[in-house]
């Protein structure tokens, strides 16, 4: 028997990259429930980026904000699809008396009606397929649309104007490559010195644009002559527009990778202990990774290597250059075709 819901709440209260990946689920839910009302609960930091056509209402919540307005906004929805593992993501739908609350239990089972424990397929699927499999196992909801197609908000006129100004120093015929050197977890970062050497080797062919958040702006990072440093200077929606214009992105396991997937820009991913199967898209990317016996490892602290990340240090400049040209050969136009 087909599952029917009139009002669907989708919750993703995790990091930016996770929120972007969740748009694949939102899109698929919309296609499967075209007449249903869909609300998307996210943090204030990500709201502009996920103001997308598949969502009827954005619900914004953060620690320290009053709970009552949020409870009223989501009151008695038919179902809450919990795509993260945060305690509050289950607690708010519980307070709102939503009758079906489905997702990973992860120490919050008291507030869930349909929860599963961490499955044995944690590293066997791409992240959006993993989310979809959890929903299927939890409540029998089998999403039939492509959950791997990510989406972010279209650039506004203000975004386009701002990006025109930001990129004006490198305006010209030479293509540019975006570089996002910093992840939220520093153990996932490749060497700044090696990034510099890589960009210098390609200076005759490409310009480079370094992107990152405000927290990244003061981190030590040598900028070559053929590069523009925009760390901390672009909003999230402006960063999406920069990536859309870039021919390629070079990065580690970080939010810009998922942003590039959404705007169809090919990616060279430099991965250490992160699961390539789970966190690299099936299409549009080349991944350089050295498999160590302790990988995959998602721990922020207490890693077997003492957070020294030999897996990232093993990646050489020469193999990144080789991987980049492999990416160019696969996507010569700098676009991931539909």
Walkthrough of the structure:
With 338 residues, this protein is of the alpha/beta class. It has two domains: 7-139, 3-Layer(aba) Sandwich (Rossmann fold), CATH 3.40.50.2000; 162-330, Glycogen Phosphorylase B (Rossmann fold, 3-Layer(aba) Sandwich), CATH 3.40.50. The chain is 32% helix and 16% strand. The protein has eleven helices and twelve strands. The strands form two sheets. The chain has a six-stranded parallel sheet with strand order 3-2-1-4-5-6, sandwiched between helices. Helix 6 packs across helix 11 and helix 7 (236-245) crosses helix 8. The mean pLDDT is 94.
Can you describe this structure in just a few lines?
With 338 residues, the chain is α/β, with parallel strands linked by helices.
Number of helices: 11
Mean pLDDT: 94
CA gyration radius, whole angstroms: 20 Å
Instruction: Please state the overall shape, judged from the principal axes of the Cα atoms.
Output: globular
Helix content, binned percent: 25-40%
Low-confidence parts: none
Strand-and-helix sequence, N→C? EHEEHEHEEHHEHEEHEHEHEHH
Distance between the termini: 33 Å
Biggest β-sheet, characterized?
6 strands, parallel
Under CATH, the homologous superfamily of the largest domain reads Glycogen Phosphorylase B
- In the residues, how many domains can be counted? 2
Highest CATH level, the class of the largest domain:
Alpha Beta
CATH topology of the largest domain: Rossmann fold
Strand order of the largest sheet: 3-2-1-4-5-6
């Amino acid at each position: 028997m087909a599952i029917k819901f009139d009002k669907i709440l989708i919750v993703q209260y995790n990091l930016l990259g996770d929120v972007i990946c969740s748009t694949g689920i939102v899109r698929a839910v919309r296609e499967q429930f075209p007449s249903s009302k869909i609300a998307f609960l996210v943090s204030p930091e990500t709201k502009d980026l996920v103001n997308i056509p598949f969502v009827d209402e954005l619900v914004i919540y953060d620690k320290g904000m009053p709970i009552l307005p949020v409870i009223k906004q989501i009151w008695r929805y038919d179902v809450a699809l919990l795509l993260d593992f945060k305690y509050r993501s289950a607690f708010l739908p519980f307070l709102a008396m939503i009758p079906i609350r489905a997702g990973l239990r992860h120490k919050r089972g008291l507030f869930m009606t349909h929860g599963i424990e961490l499955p044995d397929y944690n590293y066997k699927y791409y992240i959006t397929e993993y989310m979809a499999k959890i929903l299927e196992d939890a409540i029998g909801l089998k999403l039939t649309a492509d959950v791997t197609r990510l989406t972010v908000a279209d650039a506004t006129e203000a975004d386009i104007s701002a990006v025109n100004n930001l990129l004006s120093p490198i305006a010209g015929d030479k293509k540019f490559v975006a570089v996002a050197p910093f992840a939220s977890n520093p153990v996932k970062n490749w060497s700044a010195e090696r990034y510099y050497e890589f960009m210098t080797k390609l200076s005759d062919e490409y310009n480079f644009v370094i992107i990152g958040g405000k927290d990244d702006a003061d981190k030590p990072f040598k900028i070559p002559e053929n590069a523009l440093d925009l760390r901390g200077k672009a909003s999230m929606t402006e960063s999406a527009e920069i990536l859309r214009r870039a021919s390629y992105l070079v990065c580690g396991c970080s939010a810009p990778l998922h942003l590039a997937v959404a705007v169809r820009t090919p990616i060279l991913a430099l991965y250490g202990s992160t699961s390539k199967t789970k966190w690299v898209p099936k299409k549009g990317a080349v991944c350089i990774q050295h498999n160590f016996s302790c990988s995959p490892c998602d721990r922020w602290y207490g890693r077997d290597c003492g957070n020294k990340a030999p897996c990232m240090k093993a990646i050489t400049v020469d193999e990144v250059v080789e991987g980049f040209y492999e990416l160019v050969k696969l996507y010569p136009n700098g676009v991931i075709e539909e």
